[in-house]
Amino acid sequence: MNITYDKFSRYAIIAISLLAVFIHVGNYTIFTLPSIQFYACHLLLGLLLIFLYKPLGQGKNLQPKTQRWCHIIDWVLIVLSIVVSSYVIFNFETYVSTMQNNVLTIELYVLGVIITGIVLEAGRRVLGNTLPIIALLAILYALLGNYIPGLFGHRGYTLRRIALAIFSDRGVYGTPIGTSATNVYLFLLFAAFLNASGADVIFQNIAIALAGKKRGGPAKMAVIASAFFGTISGSCVANVVSTGAFTIPLMKRSGYKKAFAGAVEAVASTGGQIMPPIMGAAAFVLADIASVSYAKVCAAAFLPAVMYYVCLLKMVDLEAVKYNLKGIDPSEVPSVKESLLKGMKLFVPVGVLLVTLLGLNYTPMKSAVTAIFSIIIFGVLNRKEPLTKEQVLNGCLGAGHALCSVVGACATAGIVVAIFSLTGLGLKFSNFLVMMGGNSLVPSLVLSMLVCSILGMGLPTTAAYIVVATAIAPALVKLGLPVLAAHLFLLYFACISAITPPVAVASYAAAGIAEENPMKVGWMAVKLGITGFILPFAFAFNTDYITFNWDLQTLLTWLSGMVICYSLAIVLQGYVEKKITVVERLLYVVAIVLTIPPHVITSVAGIVLFAVLYGYRKREARNLARKTLTETQTLTCP
User: Fold this and answer.
1) Is 579 helix (H, G, I), strand (E, B) or coil?
2) What are residue 579's phi and psi, to 5 degrees?
3) Whole-angstrom Cα distance, residue 177 to residue 179?
4) Is 156 buried (19+), middle (13-18) or exposed (0-12) by CB count in 10 A?
5) Cα distance between residue 445 and residue 427, in whole Å
6) Distance (Å, rounded) from C-alpha 87 to C-alpha 263?
7) Distances (CA, A) of 228 to 29, 54, 169, 187, 513
8) DSSP secondary structure string, 190-258?
9) DSSP character for 334?
């Protein structure tokens, strides 16, 4: 019974994953579905995959009778998902008309209640309890708001009105699931095809070739590999598990402490969500909510992402200085040229994506489809390592599996967004935040950071960002922050919560591989990922960090960014080529403070101060090395 059912589920997953590829790719190549119809198809496919990939009672040792009941419940949910989605798919014109006229019918009420229950259960299975509980609390707020006094009170709404809002294009078929359907899935498919082509192994080899021989090589290699892999995966935990399984043991063998090794991987993997060109699913949602092009989001995120990784690399480098850690044996390091040549089958599709997205100004959807076709074409033409049918199937299945968490997050967040829209809670929360911050930007930013961090501890990045963007972004914009800066600020803290204790999913995943206490790894990750906490404030006060004019100011901004990264790493580690004094560390802090504001004079002063401090220690180290070499040669001469 179990074997038969498992086989049937496997075949069903394959069929649905292939259907998902056909509908999503086909919608941008050979046909075009009306938006609501397309969103309904997307949500249906995601729900079916969730209930098949995450069956009730999974991982529990259930009795055969109990297991049969679990299977029955799963298929009841699957059938109900098909029924509700079919109504929208085959009656989308009636659905749109009904929603536009705000008509309350028994039919819609029943369907709204059903889809609410299904989405909450799907969200629980893939995300845990936190987001579904928030959604339930939002529904209770809509029901009982007339009993709440003051700013957050409202007139109260009936269950029928709430169900209609959730079932509408402001709820589960609204912006979150729409973004998932139009943008996210295609990039998940692109990443899955790259993965199926052996991206993880290729990225690891390139990272070893580039950094393996250098001091602290294994840790630098981990940062580079995770940065490469993070650009296509967009999932910090998946990144930790895939690259960390190799890099963390290697770091430990090279002399790095277990907590440090785990933290390096956690921080590097988390950065993948803010590293263009793909970033994470939340970046696509950001583009839709903020009403800016995805290309503009990528361009704005580029320098902060580079600064994030530069600071981490310098922290790793100084740790190697502190404990005199060497690189990998040169005999174990592959050739850079050979590694890059093997990586061409990955670089060509990524290059196609960048050229079409940023150079030719294609839509993200068209760019992703073009890049996917380039993987297939290049794979077929590659005689040495041709793309096999099994790899293509694995790519389709990988995209379907990745879709589960995205659909679960977006659909459940859609319930919260619907309640925010119905009750005006988002506007009320924004007004409350402005009032608590005393109409001042700095306190409001700090409060926003705390809210994002707290929400992000229990939610995936996409869901956390959707909630805070709905509730907080309007307040930050009202206080004078540019729209893109406000949304990037919130996105950063929604991402960085993955390494922030007490609930830090990336740090926990890395701790398991490192065999270390998760809290130790988490707090070490906070230290190593400190730029993730500072950068949002930096570009909030100096938007030059997220804008490019290709002029002298841009050059000065990039130089200032590098000064901040290096200075921050030196301040925290207390080393350059050897231990530095407290006064020097304080002067590096001064350099950071001078270079953050958008003023030419202070920025130049900060850069000069850094150059003098850093140059002095580097020169001292070179002179010492030269003196030591001379003395050694003198002693060895006959």
Assistant:
1) strand
2) -60, 135
3) 5
4) middle
5) 17
6) 48
7) 29, 29, 36, 15, 20
8) HHHHHHHTTHHHHHHHHHHHHHTTSTTHHHHHHHHHHHHHHHHH--HHHHHHHHHHHHHHHHHHTT--H
9) P
Give residue-wise pLDDT tens across range 234-287.
Answer: 678 777 887 888 888 888 888 889 999 999 999 998 888 888 887 877 888 898
Dihedral sign, Cα of residue 347, residue 348, residue 352, residue 358: positive
**Residue 475 CA to chain centroid, in angstroms?**
24
Angle at CA of residue 356, ends 350 and 357, nearest 5°: 85
| Tokens of residue 222, six digits | 């981990």
Do the beta carbons of residue 426 and residue 412 sit within 8 Å? Answer: no
- Is 99:168 a contact under the CB 8 Å cutoff? yes
Residue 439 burial (10 A CB sphere; 0-12, 13-18, 19+): exposed
Interval 284-342: pLDDT, tens: 889 888 889 888 998 899 999 999 999 999 999 999 988 888 877 777 777 777 777 77
Compute the radius of gyration of the chain from its Cα atoms: 26
Rounded distance between C-alpha atoms, residue 271 and residue 525, angstroms: 12
The structure's pTM equals 0.86
Instruction: With CA atoms as reference, report the closest residue to 395 among 628, 111, 186, 633.
Output: 186
Domain ranges of the chain: 2-136+168-178, 555-638
